[in-house]
Design brief:
This protein is an all-alpha fold. The protein has one domain. The chain is built from 12 helices and no strands. The longest helix has about 35 residues. The chain is globular and about 65 Å long.
């Protein structure tokens, strides 16, 4: 038992270092590319004309570090259960290998997390719970890439709870959870990036309409009562919680450049 305790205490900082590395590469990477290197190139895909204040970005970054600490601390519980032989699928996960099992596990992570996120997100928006669970995140009315992990303590706990439950309840390939976390962070960061990167059809609708877009989630921060989904739009469509102005707003954003070019040609 002392050996296990020592192993656990060493595991926590290693887990935190891994989570920080992912955050540094992905969240900082999105911020660097979209906000520092390419804002002029992508200016016609900017969702809002104004930019968040620098103070907001610093606060979001600091709260994100706190969230990462909570993720790392709580997720260590699955390692403890594995060491104690309490994970029911551990043997099966070790026996089944190969790309189909791995990517199938990642896809299952995403599908189940999409449902979990939608319902937990709606639950947190109930007035009696919003202040305790979700207020910190919505202080970023005009989000940035660093908003993605800017959570209250309780919300951070709920976010990592999915990973813990998945490991306990669902057989999955070794390493698939790490890949899922990378995919989830990329999607989450882009949703808060302030730039719409989704291709549009000629009519101005999202080309892949079943995926959420930056506009889709930005509307949630602007009018917090719609658009609770993270990866896909189907839960919002099924439950009638998609913002009625979504397609109009998406079209406005993706056609900004076209309208500017038309106005310039008319003046010329």
């Amino acid at each position: 038992m002392p050996e296990l305790l020592t192993d656990i205490l060493l595991r926590i900082p290693r887990s935190m270092a891994t989570d920080l590395e992912r955050y540094a590469y992905l969240a900082l990477g999105v911020w660097l590319v979209l906000w520092v290197l390419l804002p002029k190139v992508l200016r016609f895909r900017k969702v809002r004309a104004d930019w968040p204040e620098r103070r907001q970005l610093v606060i979001e970054f600091l709260h994100s570090l706190r969230s990462i600490a909570i993720f790392s601390l709580l997720s260590t519980s699955t390692y403890v259960m594995w060491r104690l032989g309490w994970l029911p699928w551990a043997d099966l996960n070790a026996q089944l290998t190969g790309p189909y099992w791995f990517w199938g596990s990642v896809l299952l992570h995403i599908l189940l997390h999409d449902a979990y996120f939608y319902w937990i997100h709606r639950w947190m928006h109930e007035p009696q719970r919003f202040r305790l669970y979700h207020k910190r995140h919505h202080r970023s009315n005009n989000p940035s890439p660093f908003t993605a992990y800017s959570f209250d303590l309780r919300e951070a706990g709920l976010m990592v709870l999915f990973v813990i439950l998945f490991e306990i309840l669902v057989p999955n390939a070794h390493g698939s959870t790490g890949m899922f976390i990378v995919v989830s962070l990329v999607k989450n960061t882009l949703a808060h990036s302030g730039f719409e990167l989704m291709p549009a059809t000629r009519s101005g609708k999202p080309m892949f309409d079943w995926f959420t877009t930056t506009v889709h989630h930005d509307l949630h921060h602007a009018r917090a009562g719609y658009n609770f989904g993270l990866y896909f739009t189907w839960w919002d469509k099924w439950m009638g919680t998609e913002d009625p102005t979504y397609y109009q707003e998406f079209k406005r954003v993706v056609e900004q450049g076209r309208q500017t070019d038309t106005a310039t040609a008319a003046v010329a």
